[in-house]
Design brief:
about 130 residues; mainly alpha; 8 helices; disordered C terminus
Length: about 130
């Protein structure tokens, strides 16, 4: 498994207290990571957002299914839970992630919400980012 704690410590010092808790799993960390993302979206902090979404995507891309699946169920499944941030969140989601997490959204949401998210996913990427 990719050494997620080492990578998280280097990339996200804001969450060092969570990383250092050996008894906490990557699921707890990824849940806290989403909370950091929500705060960064509200503050318009593209630096933090780049690091947060970069780390989540790194987890998603790991060949070991445990960490990849953890990123889907503990981070990406929840990125639209704070519905007021939907316009800010959508451009940060890579298409490969959306393909994997969309069935979970279908299960959780009414058709109207899913339809709106589908429309949002064509949004322009945030400043400094290439299209995902």
């Amino acid at each position: 498994m990719g050494d997620w704690r080492t990578r998280a410590s280097a990339l996200l010092p804001e969450l060092s207290a969570v990383v250092e808790r050996e008894s906490w799993s990557c699921h707890v960390f990824l849940s806290e990571l989403w909370q950091l993302a929500a705060e960064a979206h509200r503050a318009g902090d593209d630096d933090v957002l780049g690091r947060v979404y970069g780390f989540a995507h790194w987890c998603f891309q790991q060949p070991e299914q445990f960490l990849a699946n953890a990123s889907v169920v503990s981070f990406y499944e929840h990125v639209f839970d704070e519905w007021e941030l939907r316009d800010e969140v959508a451009p940060w989601l890579p298409a490969e992630v959306v393909d994997k997490v969309r069935p979970l959204w279908e299960w959780r949401w009414p058709a109207e919400r899913l339809s709106e998210v589908d429309q949002l996913l064509g949004a322009t990427p945030p400043p400094g980012r290439n299209a995902v």
